[in-house]
Amino acid sequence: MHFHVVERELEMNLVLSPERSVPVPARLSYRTSDPYAVHIVFHTGSESPVEWSFARELLLEGVFRPCGQGDVRVWPSRADGRTTVCMSLTSPNGAAQVEAPASVVSAWLERTLRAVPPGQEHEQYDIDAALAGLLARTPRDGAARRHGQDEPRPGGGPAAGDGIGA
Predict the structure, then answer these.
(1) Which candidate, 95, 97, 51, places its Cα nearest to that of 77?
(2) Among 14, 93, 138, 164, which has the minimal tally of Cβ within 10 Å of its Cβ?
């Protein structure tokens, strides 16, 4: 299977107050290997860029009307006579509101739709590989394997074969 990446460098504005914002270089990224998601990387000048991933459908809808709830909300707006797409991003580490030119976001989204049309995402997604990755167990050492103990996993959920749904 051939995978494709659609990227666009742009400048977004980090909204500090209704009267003040600062420019932040960012990169929009869409991978056909992850067809349901869009990724935004903010280059904040620190050692590690900040990355957000959320549903492509959320961004598609947010260009036209307010949508989302919880961690990610997206809505169209007008600022200084230009149309923008606003995003509210919330995490346990903080919250930010950013805005981007709607024309740039829309043109980039159009490219993602040509790469994987809506409703065809499932054709790109390798469900077998995703499940294998989720269900893979890595024993800590030979003793753990002998005693049937699993490596601790993020989230602490049960591993395959723990009797859930068996």
Answers:
(1) 97
(2) 93
Q: What is the pLDDT of residues 110-151, one digit of tens each?
A: 999 998 887 656 655 566 666 677 788 655 544 444 444 444
Quote the CA–CA distance of 12 and 99 in Å, as a whole number. 6
Give me the long-range contacts of 134-139 (CB less than 8 A, separation at least 24): 135/159, 135/160, 137/161
pTM of the prediction? 0.71
DSSP-based helix, strand, coil % in the chain, nearest 5: 25, 40, 35
Token pair recorded at residue 69: 């709830």
3-34: pLDDT as tens digits:
789 999 999 999 999 899 999 999 999 998 88
Best CA proximity match to 51, nearest among 38, 61, 60, 62: 38
Tokens 């990610």 map to which residue? 72
CA distance 46 to 107: 29
Listed in sequence order, the residues at least 6 apart from 44 whose beta carbon sits closer than 8 Å to its beta carbon are 24, 50
The helix (run of H) or strand (run of E) holding residue 83 is strand 82-91
Within 8 A by CB and 6+ apart from 69, the residues are none
